[in-house]
Design brief:
The two termini are about 15 Å apart. By secondary structure, this protein is of the alpha/beta class. The protein contains 11 helices and 15 strands. About 25% of the residues lie in helices and about 20% in strands. The chain has an 8-stranded mixed β-sheet with strand order 10-11-9-8-7-6-12-13. A 3-stranded antiparallel β-sheet has the order 2-3-4, with helices on one face. A two-stranded antiparallel sheet has the order 1-5. The protein has 2 domains: about 80 residues, Outer Surface Protein A, domain 3 (Alpha-Beta Complex); about 230 residues, TIM Barrel. The longest helix has 17 residues.
């Protein structure tokens, strides 16, 4: 344990990629680079705020009594032990990180649902290319032959997409799918409604929603329509890089820079949302992406959502604006399993305890 007398003129510097997020019941310390989180009592959030502008000795003088000093010393040692902070002579060389976010693409990702009839993927991909879209997910609520997958993937050749992910019902044709994935490196396939022994063979997979072998994934979940999305639980929490974390602070973690096409061809922010901006056969995706009304949900960040604004998980949560508690775009996700006011997950027997209290 460091003695305060030896460091009273120094400063505690919390690394720039470690973000304290205050919730109603506790504070999360999110180490974005290492993708780890730690939980502390909310009083330490206030302490960290004071330490941004004062040296350790000055802060120690603000505390009441010997017990508070002991906790203060233990907290400093805790942060040093888990390598979230260091003791420095001055903070002048460590400016705060600018929490700005931008992206060169008008649209970053797209969801396309299909069921009874195929969309015009040639038109769709050409327009997504103009929008500089990076990632595409195609969700099939019908049997999708391997030949149809290849037909769709062939249309991506020459495009600048980073990934094209398919979610399809398990059909046993893994050998053909693997050959297709070898041919198209940007492709990934996830089989849903998978009921074989894979999850039993891998003990660590039992508590996971999906298991991946290379670019081929499996999930037990049956996906029969878009209504299956929107679940927010402990497994859906996702720590991205600093840029992604900042995006979640500034924008909506699900809808920002996203454009979707539902199974009937309606263009939406998300296939599960009611509002349609037109049919993909009759209007271009590029025109819709420029529509200010279409862009409004992009900026509904977690600090503007009831319940979520009091949650310590808010900046690593994917969110859902399609299914909300009262149908309002600014209300809590209806399928969220966490209560920020009690610190309890509905799908766990007890709350996740604060690590340092």
């Amino acid at each position: 344990m460091k003695e305060l007398a030896t460091i009273q003129d120094k400063y505690l510097y919390l690394f720039a990629d470690c973000f304290p997020v205050k919730g109603h019941t506790r504070t999360m310390l999110c180490d974005v680079s290492r993708q780890k989180v730690y939980f502390v009592d909310n009083s330490y959030y206030e302490l960290l705020s004071v330490l941004k502008d004062n040296n350790i000795g000055t802060v120690a003088q603000m505390l009441d009594g010997e017990e508070d000093l002991i906790y203060f010393k233990e907290f400093i040692d805790y942060l040093l032990d888990i390598e979230l902070a260091i003791v420095v002579d001055t903070l002048d060389r460590f400016p705060s990180m600018e929490l700005e976010w931008d992206h060169p693409s008008k649209i970053i990702n797209s969801i396309i649902d299909i069921r009874d009839e195929m969309h015009d993927f040639n038109k769709i991909f050409n327009e997504l290319e103009v929008l500089a879209c990076y990632h595409i997910q195609i969700r099939a609520y019908c049997q999708l032959p391997v030949s149809k997958l290849e037909e769709i993937l062939a249309l991506t050749v020459g495009k600048n997409f980073r990934s094209v992910d398919f979610l399809i019902e398990y059909d046993g044709k893994e050998a053909e799918i693997k050959a297709l994935l070898d041919k198209y490196e940007i492709a990934q396939v996830t089989y849903h409604t998978y009921e074989m022994e894979l999850f039993d063979e891998e003990p660590e997979a039992k508590n996971r929603a999906k298991v991946y072998h290379g670019s081929l994934g499996y999930t037990k979940q049956k996906v029969s329509g878009c209504e299956g999305c929107g679940l927010v639980n402990i497994n859906s929490m996702r720590i991205r890089d600093v840029k992604g974390f900042t995006e979640n602070i500034k924008h909506n973690g699900c809808l920002n820079r996203k454009i979707s096409i539902d199974e009937t061809g309606n263009i939406k922010n998300c296939p599960s949302m009611e509002k349609s901006y037109g049919h993909v056969n009759n209007i271009s995706l590029t025109k819709i992406a420029d529509d200010t009304e279409f862009q409004k949900p992009w900026n509904i960040n977690k600090d503007n959502i009831d319940g979520c604004k009091d949650c310590e998980y808010r900046y690593i949560c994917t969110d859902c604006r399609a299914y909300t508690t009262d149908g309002d775009l600014h209300s809590k996700p209806a399928k969220c399993q966490y209560d920020p006011y009690t610190g309890v997950w509905a799908d766990k027997e007890e709350s996740v305890n604060t690590v340092f209290a």
